[in-house]
Structures
1.
Amino acid sequence: AAGTHVPAIVVGSGYGAAVSALRLGQAGVGTLVLEMGRAWTTPGPDGKVFCDMLNPDRRSMWFRDRTEAPVDGVLFLDLANRPIRRWAGVLDRVQFPGMGVYVGRGVGGGSLVNGGMAVVPDRAYFEQVFPTVDADEMYSTWFPLANRALRVNSIPEPWFEGTDHYRYARLSRTLAGRAGYGTRLLPNVYSFEHMMREERGEAPKSALGTEVLYGNNHGKFSLDKGYLAQAVGTGNVTIAPLHRVTRVTRTATGYAITARQITEDGTLVAEKQLTCDHLFLGAGSLGSTELLLRARETGDLPDLPDEVGEGWGPNGNVMAARNNNLHEPTGFKQSAIPVLAITDPVRDVIAEIAPVPAGIETYVSLYLAITRNPNRGRFTYDPAADRLDLQWTRAQAAPSVAAAKGLLDEVNAANGTTYRYDVFGGGKAFADDFCYHPLGGAVLDRVTDGHGRVRGYPNLYVTDGALVPGSLGVNPFVTITALAERNIARVLADDL
Ligand code: FAD
């Protein structure tokens, strides 16, 4: 309703947003969460909430005519991408020149679509990235809290060693070992207990049924099941899905926002004005930065810091595909949840072994490499188009490609294998033109103070991946969660 006032508004419902909503709710603060995507609770005609990767439909992507999965095809098969109806699907690819950024759309944000890998960063690297954050406190309090709240678990090693579904990962380990590289198992928020029951036929298949990227119907402890369910359970938090915040202005005592509510088909239902005392931006690196940049450039919040938009990076993401020898197949049964990574301490690469859940033998090994690329992009705002732009060039990805290629060249040399050029489109073996880990745009201690309070604007906060300056060395959501926990604890103690 127009003119409604709530004590706190949280924009978005990913990791930073969900943490803030829960802790505000527990503190007794009436909180409204506005999320542009839908609530993924009602099953479609097939009885499932999400579609799988092999049969994508309108649920797969955010208002597209065709799916845009990162793996375009394998051999002559167009395995992945299909025409679909335009709808409020769960995965978006926001396209900038030279960089496509994948993000989740829905109540739960990236937790709905991601691979669930829950990795605490190397402490020395964390200290470099966040020199002003008390690392002792992070590693003794906030990382453990995040791991517990997200229900992070580890794959039982005997099962990993025996199951057909991780043959692809064990093969990549063997090939890396021949080149002298070690591997490490990565924790996850997907329940391995559930995955083992899937294999035994005692639970419905999700990870073992080619589900990830467009959502998991079972097994994954996503934010809607954890933080957000608990937040609503406090009785103080309401979540409004299909509400996109487009504008933030100041009032005498707080902030006013404009939100556009749509149907799942994209029809505008209402444009609402809401006011609040405390405003938490948790719309992700792209979403929170866009709101701040637009507010600064249009004069709504003219005194926002110059650094808004700076410090963006794709966490050094590069994907690569190799071809295996015919006598060393990957296996046609592949769990969609990655659990193993090759480590290259010299080049500072972790190459996560990604599945190719095609249901047939492809002889392809796929890697998501996280590299420590120092290059940063920056967001700008185009007032004529009312659009966020990203200044990032393919040349800036070159150090990431070089590092990943250095590692995988050695793996190929040790095994007499080659790259695959038919996987990403454009005839390239390394995909440096998209990322899963957008970070930065409202960097901690630059745009905000040391706890996410936006400089110059009391009671306005950034809670999400926008705070992280471009690179973490590992998958980001545990860090985003832990940092949000740390920040909201201080904000609740001092500001509310
Ligand atoms: P997000 O989770 O991106 O949430 C932001 C939310 O805000 C979204 O729901 C969005 O719809 C909403 N929003 C945006 N703008 C607005 C607006 N104006 N109004 C209202 N709502 C808005 N990370 C890992 O750590 N491990 C992994 O295994 C992993 N795998 C990944 C796989 C894929 C395919 C993808 C896409 C990402 C993966 N990630 C992974 C990255 C991880 O999901 C993100 O880093 C994380 O979700 C970012 O959290 P966040 O709080 O910054 O925002």
Note: The CA atoms of residues 315 and 462 lie 19 Å apart.
2.
Amino acid sequence: YAGDENRSLWLRRLRAIPVRAHHAPPVVVGEADSVREAIVRLFLEDVGTLYVLGRERLLAGVVSRKDLLRAAIGRQNLDEVPVGVIMTRMPNIVTVSPDDSVYDAAVKLLEYQVDSLPVVVPRGENRHALEVVGRFTKTTVTRVFVALGRDEPWVGGES
Ligand code: ADP
């Protein structure tokens, strides 16, 4: 049984694993793209959430599977509805920084009850002007969990 010292060392290591070392590439659409295009992209890229880019390719919002299902119900022409109209929009988007820990990001997933967090870096002074550099999802957490269980050396992101 691990002593207190080992235990706190382990906890410190666990909470220091950076998002930077584990996030996936972002899958994005433009604000003016249609709901149909977004659905096709969701299938082609095999993701559950798309990040929506607005002017200057900054983060404008997020569309999830259920957002797209809701939009598809009872609408005749999915080509005429832009994703910008149905997305959850900034500044109500929960994000993480590449420097945040995987632990803190996982806490955010649970706290806000979402499947996916855009990994962002600020562009300039305006804190709502965010560049999307990755995606952090429940799958990311599962991968890190399994890698920890296997005691894979790269988990901590040191190398
Ligand atoms: P689904 O709706 O497909 O189950 P989520 O649970 O992730 O997927 O999304 C729930 C709602 O929260 C959706 O309306 C979605 O637009 C929104 N949402 C998803 N991710 C985020 C996020 N990171 N920040 C804010 N809202 C989000």
Note: The chain has a mean pLDDT of 93.
